[in-house]
Please model this.
Amino acid sequence: MKRFPLHIALGFWAIVTAFPLLWAVTSSFKSDAEILTSPWTVPSEVRWENFSRAWNEASIGQYFLNSVIVVGGALFLTMLVGGLAAYTLARYRFPGNRFVYYLFVTSQFFPTFLALVPLFFTVEQMGLLGTKLGLILVYATFATPFTIFFLHAFFRTLPSAIAEAAFIDGCTHWGVFFRVMLPMARPGLVSVAIFNFLGLWNQYLLPLVLNPDPENYVLAQGLAALSTSQGYQSDWSGLFAGLTIAMLPVLLAYVCFQRYIQAGATAGAVK
Amino acid sequence: MSVLARPVERAAAPAPPAPRKRRRLNRGYGFVIGALAPALVLHLVFVVSPYAQAFYLSLTDWNGVAGKADFVGFDNFTRLAGDSLFLDAIGNNLLLLLLMPAATIGIGLFLATMIQRGGKDGRTGVRGSRFYEIVFFFPQMLSVAIVAVLWGFAYNPNNGLINGVLRAIGLDGLARSWLAEPGLALFAVMAVMIWSGVGFYMVLFSAAIDGIPKEIFEAALIDGSSGWTTFRRITLPLLRDNVQVAFVYLGMVALDAFALVQIMTVGPGGPDGSTEVMGLSLYRTAFEYGKFGYASAMGVALFFGTLVFALVALRGNKNRTELA
Model:
């Protein structure tokens, strides 16, 4: 009984957190009339057609696919490029090593807004404005400094005896990286990959500026554009269905892998 | 010929170790260059060069036409100082900076303490702590644009969640047009920032409290320390670094706030500039009005604002540590 007030406090915040999400999910099964007249009751019948309408007519399916391609491509690129850079900076001595490291790491503390205008023209001049390749390159580049910062510390802690044994057995530098060091760094790679995935999936400013073609919209961008466009009043239920499509897979994946994800998401702040 | 050639060949024979060693060293450098080049090239093209150009552009009147950028010195900055909308934006960002991180950290710390130390004897975690942690973390999984769309609906005056709940529990009088009243809109945006940030910092603080040796709390309990005293004298001082990191991160979020404002508010930035933020001004000036030089000056102002904040936040803590 003594713990009762405590559970009220915790339960209150749990409701504050979860209720808006539940409300959006239940609304996505309602008809427009129900949403307008009784915003917070359960739907009278489950209307799956809202979802097919959102997926096809409102192009949520297309946006979802675009997001998967862009974020997937950028994630792979940043892990490869950032992993290689972190490894060489952590384990090879060469003139300028410190300088290059700080060139990467300090850029994390610059606000993206400062780079926005020149970045737009750089991407435009390369002919990459509004292309998936352009977004992938920029996403990967912006995620690389943190990847290097995190993996640099990680590669330093790995023992060198196994790498030396591999060299003696005739393994090349590339071979040692891909076949010895990378597998040994797996826990660090998983954490930073989760962190990067969430960060890139979360991007809004970069696609807004660099990805003006509605065909190529990523999910968050497309949904935001739908909700602010003039015609949205006519299809509330479709928009809620779109919102649910954007939220639910991520939340389900989170509930399944929450320990990894919490560790990965907080990786930046614990370091 | 062959007689002459043979001794040369033989003389070279004992040498192999040396060239091999040299080759290994060379290949090491080759590897370093090959492995570093992709990241470095991308970084120079898409990060270093744009940041460097921004500082230069802020001193020009460039409107996007190639070759037509005149150097105007600090004119853009003097204009900024008299730009009432941008000054509103600075004020709004500062208000967010003043209130949002403190509220988020406060709620996060409270929940983390409850979860970690709320067990029956005041030593262990509360029952169901894992469940609470999972639910509190939900908003962190959603992209900020999704959160903005969700709350844009929730604040809708006619069929939104907030007014719906208020009417359902008989508080019709409290129902508002949340994003349309100048005095309320910024706080409505701030509430969303707090809503989405608390879970992350709660998990962070919770892990930190979990890392404090149990003996310390037991000693305090034996000495008859109350829950509040334990929190103030033990938990909080030991979490100082975490709180500082949280404050810096949340401060950056408060100085940004672009996505929420741009998606949720009327205008966006309205009503009447009451939710304008620096990032929104910059975005509009550059990509709607095409005043790229002036927009870059806003970027430089935002950069120095962020820099000053970060230095003050980190410095303030250093002084306290020295005193302690």
Notes: Chain B touches chain A through 100 residues (CB under 8 Å). The two ends of chain B are 86 Å apart (CA to CA). Residues 1-26, 319-324 of chain B have pLDDT under 50 and may be disordered. Residues 17-57 of chain B form the longest helix (41 residues).
